[in-house]
């Protein structure tokens, strides 16, 4: 996905559809555009992560995670606690379930703005 904004005919259709989906909210139009941008960023992040995971299933990512789990206990106890409470890296979560949960959290947090 390109990192710079490009909107062609299908992009305009998508944007119109996304704005229509946000119609029931009482958010200003500018906030609706921000939400769409943030969700697009989240989709891009998940897509890049999945592509990287497919390239190197046992590569540097696993080594970094292992290092973080052991090296942070004294210096970064909050990171260690968060990693300890996270699912085991061996038992990877279903990406679809994780994506849905994250999108719901983002949208709930944004739509319920005061």
Descriptive notes:
- This protein has 114 residues and is mainly alpha-helical.
- 68% of the residues lie in helices and 0% in strands.
- The chain has five helices and no strands.
- The mean pLDDT is 78.
Compact summary:
The chain is mainly alpha-helical. The protein has helices at residues 9-21, 29-55, 60-71, 77-85, 95-111. The protein is elongated.
How many helices?
Answer: 5
Give a count of the beta strands, DSSP E runs of length 2 or more. Answer: 0
Return residue spans where pLDDT drops below 50 for at least 5 consecutive residues: none
Shape: elongated
Average pLDDT over all residues: 78
Could you tell me the strand content as a percent range? under 5%
Largest sheet properties = none
Determine the N-to-C terminus distance.
Answer: 33 Å
User: Which bin fits the share of residues in helices?
Assistant: 55-70%
Helix-strand topology string: HHHHH
**Class based on secondary structure composition and strand pairing:** mainly alpha
**Gyration radius, to the nearest Å?**
18 Å
